[in-house]
Amino acid sequence: MTVLHFARSSAFPTAHVGILSVVSRRGGYQVCSGIRRCCRPLGSFAATPLCGDAPKGSVTPTATDITKNGAPTSPPSSAPLSTDAHLGSIDVLAPIPNTTTSTASDFAKAVPELSKAKLSALVVSTSTAGFLAAGGPISYPTLAACAVGTALCSSSASTFNQIFEVERDRRMKRTRNRPLVKGVVSPGSAAALATASGVGGGVILLAGTDPVTAALGVANIGLYAGAYTALKTKSEINTWVGAVVGAVPPVMGWTAATGGSLLDLEAAFLGGTLFLWQFPHFFALSWMHRVDYARGGFQMVPVNDPDGDRTADLISRYTWYLSAIPLASSALSVTSSMFAVEGVALNAYALYVAKRFDRDRSNANARKVFLTSLWYLPCLMTLFILHSRKWREEEEATDESKVDIQAWLRKGASDLRHFGRKHCVHEVVVARDEVGSEDKCPIALGKSKAKEASSKGADVASVVVANTNLEVKK
User: Fold this and answer.
1) DSSP letter at 428?
2) Quick one: CA dihedral 354, 356, 357, 362, positive or negative?
3) Shortest CA distance to 353 belongs to which of 385, 384, 383, 323?
4) SS3 for 21?
5) Angle, nearest 10°, between helix axes 405-423 and 337-359?
6) Nearest-CA neighbor of 250 among 234, 278, 269?
7) In percent, how much of the chain has pLDDT > 70?
8) 280-300 confidence digits (pLDDT tens)
């Protein structure tokens, strides 16, 4: 029996319907086309591009020719199918048969992949960072509820996403071995897992944290599995929607620690950091895999960016935006001035690799941007916590005789800050004069001068008001 698959490629708007694959019981030929029709012997697609219009003089087989007696009756065309030049050759992937019989053991092994365990771990780490940024005293039951609830919500969103995209995952090299594609897990079982994870995560967040955090967690499932997933095949705006999804977990951590304080300035900085970070991170990733994303029919910027101009511009632009976070948070007294100084060094390298990609849009340079983003985020979040005003040494006296995890963390943060100040050129050389009494730090000095000017302005205003009152009385 021959199986025919017909489809229109959403990655190429001008494409007409073509036969994606034909599998003959006699092992004859496979017909494939994301764009136009062609015919190739089975097994020849591994090293050949998509096929195009058959050259003059060749015969394009029809469905009747192919299926007659279960084998092709017309000679196959040898013309390659060319697609957009900037995407190069796109191999056609033979579909993986969905015939695996799953067992309980197979399902258990598939759960981490359905949940995207590595991605969920990153999400939980940002949520935990948001919680710790709120300072002490730390409520460990609340922190645990926040972490577990966030993990379950992330797992639910990822599983729903794979259910909706199983056919597109089947076309891509990166995703064609996922459990739903291979048939290890049925869509019904995956849906049950996603639902249970989502409900469980929401309940844990509601019971262990507060209604605001629970609402954010549940809403993020819908935003990721609903709006973001639907937009991936329709508009490039999907990346910006996905960035909002990534910005929510650190805000959840903050609200969980503060009892639902969603409008705090710290929450805005935490969410803003994650929002901006995702653009250089994801644009670099999607540039490396732009051919695969095109194969899956996803509307990503690099897929529609022949020369990489827009991709490079967006990576550079959002890296610059991200570099302003330490300066802004220090200027607004959310963190100490040292965060701005250390942020300059951290962002200098991020801007450097972004500039390299702008000059040479190679996959190697895109990978450097991507790998830099992986260590950049934990470094920036750690510095944010260390220099947060919520963790100032003078706020709470640490009882060194008390053996407590919270006291140990506070003391460790204090020791780390002292070590940095002791060895930082900014502190040793720039920040003090010869006598060592006057602060010359550009950031701290600027803030002190601004406060001094503000104080003088207030004094002048009070004098003017007083004189005005005297004149009125006279």
Assistant:
1) I
2) negative
3) 323
4) strand
5) 70
6) 269
7) 61
8) 999 999 999 999 999 999 999
DSSP state of 223: I
The Cα–Cα gap between 408 and 187 comes to: 47
Contacts of 445 (CB under 8 A, 6+ apart): 439
In this structure, are residues 50 and 83 in contact, taking their beta carbons and an 8 Å threshold?
A: yes
Please name which of 262, 253, 212, 291 lies closest in space to residue 384, comparing C-alpha atoms: 253
Give the closest residue to 279 by CA, choosing from 237, 248, 225. 237
Among 16-20, 374-378, 412-416, whose mean pLDDT is lowest? 16-20
- Round to whole Å and give the CA distance between 409 and 406: 5
| pLDDT value of residue 107 | 86
Q: Tell me how far CA of residue 205 lies from CA of 48, 98, 118, 251, 266, in angstroms.
A: 51, 37, 21, 13, 21
Given pLDDT bands bounded at 50, 70 and 90, which one contains residue 466? Answer: low
Q: Which tens digit of pLDDT belongs to each residue from 104-136?
A: 888 888 999 999 999 999 999 999 999 999 987
The pLDDT value recorded for residue 9 is 40
**Chain centroid offset of residue 262 CA:** 22
Phi first, then psi: what are they for 259, rounded to 5°? 80, 25
Three-class SS of residue 19?
strand
Q: Could you please report the per-residue DSSP string of 273-312?
A: HHHHHHHHHHHHHHHHTHHHHHHHT---GGGG-TTSHHHH
- Quick check: 153 pLDDT over 80? yes
Query: Angle at CA 140, nearest 5°, toward 138 and 145?
Result: 125
Interval 431-456: pLDDT, tens: 444 444 444 455 444 445 445 555 55
Q: CA-to-CA distance for 457 and 117, rounded, in angstroms?
A: 56
| Radius of gyration for the alpha carbons in the chain, expressed in angstroms and rounded | 29
The residue behind tokens 């780490």 is: 125
φ and ψ at residue 19, rounded to 5 degrees: -85, 120
Evaluate whether 257 touches 136 at the Cβ level (below 8 Å). no
Contacts of 81 (CB under 8 A, 6+ apart): 33, 34, 35, 36, 38, 49, 50, 51, 52
Q: At what angle do helices 265-288 and 238-258 cross, to 10 degrees?
A: 150
Helix (H) or strand (E) holding 65: helix 63-67
